[in-house]
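S1.2 Input.
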Amino acid sequence: FYKSFRMPVTSGHCQTPPPMVDETSSGEIMVTKQLQELHTTGFSGSEKNCLKLLTSPMRMVFPLGSSLVVRNLETGEQQLHVGHRHPITCITLSDSGTYLATGEAASLGTRAMVVCWDTSTWAQVGSHQTHHAKVQSLAISKDDTKLVSLGGADDGKIVV
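S1.3 Output.
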C-alpha cells in the first residue's frame, strides 16, 4: 500500500510532514495522525564504513565533505568539526571508543591528511600528511597506542 502526498516546499525542505493514513474497508482514506520530524541527517553513504556509533553518551559520527559531523542521539545536538581540506574517505574508531581517526582524498600531486581525534573533547591529538592523493583505510591498535594508515592506489604506503 503506497500513497503519495503533494507537500509545499520551501528552500528544499518540507514545511509540513506527510500525514499517516489508513484505508478503510470501503476504500476511503483516513488521516490517523501527523508525523513529527525528529531530525534530519545528510549522509550520502558513498564511502564505506564511515558511519560510527559511540556510546555514553550515544553519538553518531559521519563525514560531510571535509567535515566530521557528531550528532548526540540523546539530545539531538549536532557538532561540526573541521580538520581536513579535502573530502573524508575513511573513518575508524578505537575499540575503547577513546579515539577516532579520519583520512581524506586530495588531488593528485597533493598529500592527503590523516587526523586522530579525542572523542571526549573532539580535539585533534595527532595528524600527518604522508600519503599521496588518498587515504584508503585506517586502523587503531587494540591498546590505542598505534594508528595505521594505508594510502590509495597512487601511494601504496602503509604508515604506522
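S1.4 Remarks. The two ends are 54 Å apart (CA to CA).
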